[in-house]
Amino acid sequence: MGARHRRPCTRRGSVASGNGRRAPEAHAPPYLAACLEAARSITIPASRAELYELSLGGAGADTFDIGFDVPGRGFVKEGDVVRCRNGISVNYVEDYIRRRDPDCMRIGDDLPSDKPRFAADYGPFAPVKAATLAWLAEQDLIVVPFKAGGPRLGSPSLAVIPKNCGFFGTALVDLQGFFTFDELGPFAPRSILYLAPPFRHTHFDGKQVVVHDRTETLHEIWAYNLYPGPSAKKGVFSALLDIGTQEGWITAHASAVRVTTPYENETVVMHEGASGGGKSEMCQDLRREEDGRVLLGTNVVTDEPYAITLSEASRLEPVTDDMTLCHPSLQRPTSGKMTIADAEDGWFVRVDNLTSYGEDPHLERAIIHPDEPLVFFNIEGKVGATALPWEHVTDDAGKPCSNPRVIIPRNQIKGIVDEPEEVDVRTFGVRMPACTAAAPTYGVMGLMHVIPPALAWLWRLVTPRGDKNPSIGATAAEAAVIAHGGMVAEGVGSFWPFSTNTKVGAANLLLRQILAAPRTRFVLTPNQHIGAYKVGFAAEWVTREWLARRGQGPLRRERLTPARCPLFGYALKEMKLDGQQIRPSLLQPELQSKVGVAAYDAGARIITEFFKAELQQFLTDDLDPLGRAIIEVCLKDGTLDDYLALTPLEPEPYPVTGAVPMVVPAR
Q1: Which of 476, 490, 618, 630 could disulfide-pair with 463, CB 3.0 to 4.6 Å?
Q2: How far apart are CA 266 and CA 568, in angstroms?
Q3: Residue 125: inside a domain, yes or no?
Q4: Are 604 and 542 in contact (CB under 8 A)?
Q5: Is the pTM of this model over 0.85?
Q6: Which structural domain, as residue segments, surrounds residue 183?
Q7: Which residues pair with 297 in a beta bridge?
Q8: Residue 273, domain member (yes or no)
Q9: Residue 260 placed within a domain
Q10: Distance, CA of 26 to CA of 8 (rounded, Å)
């Protein structure tokens, strides 16, 4: 069955097809039904292949310019699409549109929210909403149904897209899953995504703006930008977080992988952290040198490399990549562990750390020889040539773009886990700068730290974005702070940038989630640097390997030592991997000759003061009493024992769901 075209017949607010045949109904709001009734034409793709061809304007074209007529400026080109052998390469004219603007979210409604209101910056949203609908009504449109949250537990939703932005629709369904109206049957959309790129120029002075307009039953995403990160990706995440806030659960900003050791022991690791914190890397194989060794780090002062030999690495089976569903229907209360599933049908993989052939053979194979053509962003594309993941487009500054991406549908990822999994360990990644005695910074986290639930909650409340984040731009104020060695918070659970609700409400939900899974352990691990050593993501990969080989037995306290910085919990006294001892100076950076105790303590003070400043905002009447007690320990420079008194490391018995009274602000 081909695509349905021309103006749809609409009745009682439903979206339906023309050509004399009704499609199953999507009971849309009356204003959307009126918009679609007036539209120049509507295309409802019947297959992903058809939507893929629309990305290039249809009719078998190999290149397509994405642009719009803008009043007073004429035709404005936003980007172009090129047909490559293994997919389409989408590239934007402006560097600014090649990554998500962290300040693009605005709230268009009056429901509870701690995010900036549209009205405060631009006036009432209603006139802009009406103007957007009027503009869409003058266009040729694509209407795409999808499920926000993935095929298993996702909510039926709609996207309304200008026809010359077919690539955006392809990216959306690759991330969320392709569905037809026939497959979904009659439904009322739980979320609707509208795309109107020219408004960036006519209304917002060139800025990316994504407006969230919510009711109790509908979350609308009004995207005034063309990069899918803040809308088709994180905008849908926002809708899931909104649904979860109403129902009392969380979609985590995390990846997860099932790790099977050479001895067939299985461990499921879920990795959280700010954008750029290593979520994608957690599902990637560790990198080896040409001689087969694993380069763990290079001293930035002496250029001394430190490598280890690992004869056989564990087998990795990815579970989730970025949006991890922690839905109540998945939980098994008697297990004591959190159960998760993927909230997406495809992964938005950042490949900035692929710079040459052979660095990640499994990922490279999936990208270069896909079962179906993929969608690339910020990667060089030539007609008829293979788009290569290490050929990143060049920004205006002459450097490779730091945010090259490729969307890989789950069904094209080898060895992927499709069933829900219980989480054994929740790791948290933080980008760290180099720290030396001559130039102290906050880069003093050891290779791996074991922390109690109270500290796990604090790290997720603050979520430091860390050093040189490649995934998003920084505001001028943030860039200035980072340039002078400071830290910037990404916020609650690392999902805060995408949440439309309140910080305290999210903090309470996160605490409840942590307490409900007492048998899931918590670990901190840095990336980029450990003291004076540049490590990239090697520390994360080695930690993953060690955790899997160690298994799930009790932690022997004699193998742990309190870190000098209480926020780091315990450091390991020793770590042995494949018969080799990891240098103690990587486990406790103050032991490094190029760091020392004084530089370590200076860095620890930076982190501690940063935490104190960020945590003050949570001390409201709505905060859970246990949460208040945990924060007060930090504000009073408490010890690790103080945190353990509130939430023991491995308690028996332990409070479970419902034992701690929770306060979630009313909607």
Answers
A1: 490
A2: 26
A3: yes
A4: no
A5: yes
A6: 30-62+100-247
A7: 306
A8: yes
A9: yes
A10: 12
